[in-house]
Amino acid sequence: MGLIDQILQSFGQQSSGARQEDQPLMEAAAALLDPDNSSGGLMGLMQSFQKKGLGDIVGSWISTGENKPISGQQLQQGLGEGIVAMVASRTGLSNADVTQKLSQLLPVLIDKLTPNGKVPEALTDKEIH
User: Per residue in 47-105, pLDDT tens?
Assistant: First the structure.
């Protein structure tokens, strides 16, 4: 089982709100963090958010401190409309639903993927699967 699979399984078990219909969104969120994807995985996501002036928010998800919240609008700005549309297409959700749900999911997922405030090597070296 890969790192992302382990985190998704852990997240699903710990979140009483995790429902079967949320699985495609969780898988799409995990794919965004995969270093093999075209957006560059977690490192690419961090760079994209930093370029848009949102680096402190993503940085809080990685650090050991409290996670800063992100709005759906900020998330769309950080990810870009193309990525939001791709996730919407993959999941069958509207763009608004994608940004709203990812604004709740990504902070928790990234926080769990970065224990001790560090990005694991598996998320930077294309050995995530």
Answer: 999 999 999 999 999 999 999 999 999 999 999 999 999 999 999 999 999 999 999 99
Please state the domain extents for the chain. 3-13+22-123
Distance, CA of 94 to CA of 32 (rounded, Å): 18
- pLDDT, tens digit (0-9, with 9 covering 90-100), for 19-52: 566 788 888 888 888 777 777 888 888 899 999 9
Alpha helices in 20-124 (DSSP H): 23-32, 41-51, 55-62, 72-79, 81-91, 95-113
| DSSP three-state, residue 20 | helix
In this structure, whether the domain defined by 3-13+22-123 belongs to CATH 1.10.565.10 is answered with no
Whether the Cβ atoms of residue 81 and residue 48 lie closer than 8 Å to each other: no
77 and 52 Cβ atoms separated by less than 8 Å:
yes
Q: Which helix (H) or strand (E) holds 4?
A: helix 3-14
